[in-house]
Specification:
By secondary structure, the chain is of the alpha+beta class. The chain contains 6 helices and 9 strands. Helices cover 42% and strands 24% of the residues.
Length: 214
């Protein structure tokens, strides 16, 4: 009797979930709105689009990482490492700032959707690690903005100048050749001194080559 009741309950639950999934589509992609909800009240959404290789791709379109940022979690390489670990656990990938799965064939779709939803739910829980009353230092704020922009980047990047090498805090590649050095000081004289030092360092770099965009 108990086995039958459990089976009936499980089947009823599965049927009820099927009625609560919604889809929205246009010429470029479609969106699956799941019945699963984040802590902020929004439903998890999965986008089906064509990947770079031409195969179908499921992605959260960066919404999970954006949710973490909007709710006060500092985005850093450590955070991305945690996200990547969780994604791998559920057979998903972290591609720049998106959780995604490439579909090998249509038959793998249900398993891929289920794994991606689990990854999104568990990555969303990382927001519990935030420190609501702690202000990010300026370097962390800049790194968060870089991560949210979805570009590849390096930290503590060494560049050879005309006279000596200089270590830059962030190097953004993606065809942009950007060198980003956050500068912040608490008083005018210190700010002027550090600006002069970095002006010298960037001039030193540009005397060697002009491919960079400081």
């Amino acid at each position: 009797m108990a086995d039958q009741s459990c089976s009936e309950l499980a089947n009823a639950y599965v049927r009820s979930l099927g009625d609560r999934f919604e889809t929205v589509s246009n010429a470029h992609f479609c969106v699956i709105v799941t019945p699963f909800m984040r802590a902020d009240g929004d439903y998890f959404e999965i986008f089906l689009e064509k990947g770079i290789s031409g195969t179908p791709r499921l992605t959260d379109s960066g919404e999970t990482i954006e949710y973490l940022y909007q709710n006060g979690l500092a985005l850093s390489r450590k955070t991305l490492s945690d996200i990547r670990r969780i994604a791998t656990q559920y057979h998903s990938d972290l591609q720049v700032n998106e959780l995604s799965v490439d579909l090998a064939d249509v038959s793998s779709g249900p398993t891929a959707v289920h794994g991606l939803v689990q990854a999104m739910i568990n990555v969303g829980r990382l927001v519990e690690k935030r420190r609501p009353h702690t202000r990010l230092d300026f370097d962390a704020e800049v790194e968060t903005l870089i991560i949210r922009s979805g570009v590849q980047y390096d930290t503590d990047y060494q560049v050879q100048g005309a006279r000596e090498p200089t270590q830059i805090k962030f190097h953004v590649n993606s065809g942009r050749n950007l060198l980003i050095q956050p500068l912040t000081q608490t008083n005018e004289s210190a700010a002027r001194a550090i600006a002069e030092r970095w002006s010298y360092r960037f001039n030193n770099i540009l005397e060697k080559t002009t491919v960079w965009h400081p």
